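Figure S4 source data
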Amino acid sequence: MTTATTDTGRAGTVLRHSVRKERPAPITRTAPHRNAAGHDLGTVDLEPTVFGLEPNRAVLHQVVTAQLAAARSGTQSTKTRSEVRGGGAKPFAQKGTGRARQGSSRSPSMTGGGVALGPKPRSYAQRTPRKMVRLALLSALSDRADIGQIIVVDDWKIESPKTKDAATIVRKLKVNGSVLVVLGQDELDVERSFANLPGVETTTFGELSAHDVIRADWLVFSDATLPSAPTDFSGTHVVEEASEAPAKAEQPVKAVKAAKATKAAPKATKAAPKAKAAPKTKAATETEPVAEDVVEPADAASDEEADTDA
């Protein structure tokens, strides 16, 4: 517990986890810009909101742990005593043998029996919010940019899959250790060229993860795959689509409600005439012939006037 003073001037107790930590503003960092032949083309200014953040190590640890857990197959399985073959009869007499009483030879305490509390197939996947996944990726990229292990290549100059050309590029870039090459979705020839090189892994821009970044010693981007904003990564556009989805989903619901209302309306109109036609009184039946008798003399008088005028 810590003591803090509120805006009103009163002193109160504030929990430590309720105090928000102010992080520094993003820093503008640079990365060397080279071509496929290893010639220096200057430097490239990296996006501060992507490569200039202070790494959030707690979020990075949680997201990487979740990614490693999701990669587990979870297919391990053992058989319980009810799943092991045999063991239906009592193995030996209850008394007189000097041994502990047993009711089945498939008991976990006996050889060849089942396994007690053994593993079963399960999923190790953890639910991680998209914002945490993106923050962890930005933290990993900012960490690599801080130690200066990011290189930007203008163009790969690979027209057909050839491992020799990819090995030459890696040698001329002078990168030691493990290398992660970030490619575009349509750069299949480049991906096949780097596939057989030891210590070099490739990934697409859309599949880039925090675990891949922290595993590699060097990150190699191209001018086409260098991120320019946090919204370039997966997660942001998915959130926007999810926010638009409820608005689109409301329209069919309203349409269904309107259809139900239109179907219910004819039933109400059909029921209404029955309700009005049911109560018939004698007064109503007596007024109808009177109205006819009144109309007929009027028509006859008009006919006589027409004859006199003629």
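Figure S5 source data
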Amino acid sequence: METMLSTKRIVLGLLFGLSICLPTVAQTQPVDLRLDSGGRVHFIAFGDTRFTDPGDTGAANPEVRQKLVQAVADAHPNFVSLGGDIAYNGSDANDWKVYDSETAAWRKGHIHIYPALGNHDLQGDLKTCLANYFQRFPELRQSRYYSLRAGSVFMVTLDSSLDELSGPQGEWLKNEIDTVPADVDFLVIVLHHPPYTSSSPSLAGGHSARPAEQALAKYLEERQGRMRARIVVFAGHVHNYERFEHGGVTYFVTGGGGAHPYAIKRKPSDQYRGGGVNYHYIDVHVDGGRMVATMIRLGLKKGSASWSRPDSVTIVAPAIGAARAN
């Protein structure tokens, strides 16, 4: 199965100075997972945790990361969606041992973890990167992209080191969208690189949206007009929080898991106007055709944590909205 990066992806990686593993390891058959949530669904989405030696404060803020992890454990969600850059260096076994240690409360609480691969997770020798990754997530059965059904949520997790719309992943994604079950209210797309962002490489090391993800957004927005389910996208890579709506699709950027924050000059289309540092996670509740997504923000001053909810949005499934209009 062809999984080589396109020439365009390689050039982009070189332009942005990324040290990435070229995906030459075969992708196994994508898995379709199911989680019995008892009807209502509660999950947490965030990314860019960069688990590594807590003494390495240049890679991430370990105190922030640890407090967010504990807060997630205390929230008792059905599952956590990790948007990539889980480890600082995916080929470093010690970074993953820090993940094991710092997330022990999640396993103790029997919280399911559904990850996406980020560029840092693929940094180093590819076989070693993926061996470390799949060792932590055996439920994926060596699958780099996969789907999950939980209640009225159908979640599709992509590997954005591969093209999202072409090749095996693209064919699989289009088929998954074509065959979304009729009783699904929300089609959730999870990937590392964001289709929309106010960030820019000129602002303290930020990232612009890449052409591949922009093409994915165009495709999703075209499909949204012909779907019963509402499409919601969660991405990371940019170390901040952003929220956009285009073509009926809601896009979140949730890269506030511990990696040092990026400054953002927010575009008018960014529906979150807050400034400053936004270490955070997104708390998501789905019930009765409604999704309520709330940004839980961590403030930290001299070791003292403060929590706030500066952004929250209710997203209504199209069929529910049409019923209310009638």
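The first helix runs from residue 7 to 15. The chain is about 25% helix and 25% strand.
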